[in-house]
Specification:
Structural class: alpha/beta
CATH class of the largest domain: Alpha Beta
Number of strands: 19
Strand order of the largest sheet: 7-8-10-9-13-17-14-15
Distance between the termini: 34 Å
Helix content: 25-40%
Low-confidence stretches: none
Shape: elongated
Largest sheet: 8 strands, mixed
Mean pLDDT: 95
Radius of gyration: 24 Å
CATH architecture of the largest domain: 3-Layer(aba) Sandwich
Number of domains: 2
Length: 490
């Protein structure tokens, strides 16, 4: 990622290879009017044009970015990302996007970092050059702002870097081929990322059996790469003695590859199933970011890792699994495996006695049908906490929408003839609501919210705004913001 700094310099005098300026659609374009009109630039949101400066400013190239009349922080994130993506063969950039607050400065910095992301671990440089692919060359971006000399603005830029790095780590994990990130390797990668700032415990299959985590074991038993559960804990200074430090538990679904198990998916549907660990990636990356930011909140996180494969040892439809805590579950469809690993993780999370629990999972295709590819479904047993989640999502710039958990679904979850619960919806409709009702059985009276990220976790189309093709890292920014908001409320 390029470095980001602040300056009070004027756009006309800023020293850089390229100048990015935000132009509202109703704004006077001044000396640029003739050029922008010739290029068809109207200033509409998301529009970007790049052209030689012809001596109007010190920079040799100008990128004009369209903005709404009153841009939000998310508008500025997207504009900054689009600007850096549009600039080729430049190293330094000065950026003036009319930040109206310190928070806007931070959003611009996030946009720069998120928009600069590229997953190149498996790319051949030689092949890229033959195809004419030109990677971004930007090494430094200077945000021009009247807030540049304020300590709060510098802190906002530093926070943006920490959060963006976390998002990009989650993106890397989701983009990694499934054969290169199996449960044991994923557990190792989590341990490495956590460093000394976050404590890590890894439970292998023997420990999982001892701890009666039948959901994780049941999903993972068809694979020759055994399942893992990774527990992460972060406690700020004084957390063990102060009652004023809130405690948030996070649980992430980490299916490193989902074949569907014996209820096997069609071949085409498996192509992107490396994404099925995006929930665990978000939870882990957010936990590490929260620790690095030093937020005054205690975090206990659980990454539930397994590979869902068909084999002679795989769980069968009709089997009954014994979950952590003693609840029995009748399996009807082994392709609905995420809720099984989450059940164990949620039980463990509640045992930690947090103030709130959030789980994140690529759980149901039904949520994509309901909300599309860019919006996360939020389902909760606590409407007050649900409002906190949704408010934090708005601040973070991630689209989320609340869905209900109806009593009809509770009745269906409890309708197994031979076990306490049935795992899969017997009806074709309401799949997202059924899955959330199933998860609710494992949180008791704890304040809990479930984030279904099946749609926005992976972008199969072209990059747009600060969202790249492939893994998006969705959820990380919202989880960090939830932690920030809970800490600030104390």
């Amino acid at each position: 990622m390029p470095s980001v700094s602040l300056s009070t310099a004027k756009p006309t005098t800023a020293t850089a290879d390229a100048l990015v300026i935000g132009i509202r659609h109703d704004e006077d374009k001044g000396d640029l009017t003739a050029t922008l009109d010739l290029l068809g630039f109207t200033g509409e949101k998301s529009q970007v044009v790049v052209f030689p400066s012809n001596g109007l400013v010190r920079a040799k190239v100008i990128a004009a970015v369209g903005l709404p009349a009153e841009p939000t922080a998310e508008d500025l994130r997207r504009a900054a990302a689009q600007a850096v993506q549009s600039l080729k063969n430049v190293k330094t950039v000065a950026m003036e996007l009319h930040a109206a607050s310190v928070e806007d400065v931070g959003a611009i910095a996030e946009g720069v970092h998120l928009g600069s992301y590229a997953f190149t671990a498996f790319k051949s440089t030689k092949q890229d050059s033959q195809k004419g692919v030109k990677p971004l060359t930007i090494t430094a971006v200077t945000i021009l702002s009247a807030f540049a000399r304020q300590t709060a603005a510098t802190a906002a830029v530093e926070r943006a870097l920490t959060v963006s790095e976390a998002v990009n780590v989650a993106r890397d994990w989701v983009n990694t081929p499934p054969g290169d990130l199996r449960p044991t390797g994923f557990a190792d990668a989590i341990t490495e990322l956590a460093g000394t700032e976050v404590k890590v415990q890894v439970w292998d299959e023997k420990r999982l059996e001892k701890e009666q985590c039948g959901g994780i074991l049941g999903v993972g038993q068809g694979s020759d790469s055994p399942p893992r559960l990774v527990r992460l804990t972060y406690s700020p200074s004084g957390a063990t003695t102060s009652k004023d430090v809130p405690h948030l538990a996070l649980v992430g679904k980490g299916i490193t590859f989902d074949s569907g198990g014996l209820s096997i998916k069609p071949g085409a549907s498996m192509q992107t199933m490396k994404l099925d660990m995006a929930g665990a990636a978000a939870v882990v990356a957010a936990t590490v970011a929260i620790a690095r930011l030093g937020l005054p909140i205690k975090i206990t996180a659980f990454a539930c890792l397994a590979e869902n494969m068909p084999s002679g040892s795989a769980t069968r439809p009709g089997d009954v699994l014994h979950m952590r805590g003693g609840t029995t579950v009748e399996v009807h469809n082994t392709d609905a495996e995420g809720r099984l690993v989450l059940a164990d993780g949620l039980t463990l999370a509640v045992e930690a006695k947090p103030d709130h629990v959030v789980d994140v999972a690529t759980l149901t295709g039904a949520c994509v049908v309901a909300l599309g590819n860019n919006t996360t479904g939020v389902l909760t047993n606590d409407d007050d906490f649900g409002r906190v989640v949704l408010s934090s999502a708005v601040m973070a710039g991630e689209s989320m929408w609340q869905l209900p958990i109806t009593e009809e679904m509770q009745d269906l979850v409890r309708s197994s003839a031979i076990a306490d619960l049935r795992q899969h919806n017997p009806k074709p409709a309401g799949g997202t609501l059924f899955a959330a009702a199933f998860l609710r059985e494992f949180v008791g009276d704890a304040s809990w919210a479930h984030l279904d990220i099946a749609g926005p976790s992976f972008n199969e189309g072209s990059a747009h705004g600060h969202t790249p093709a492939g893994g998006t890292g969705v959820g990380v920014r919202t989880l960090v913001q939830i932690a920030s908001d809970l800490a600030a409320a104390q």
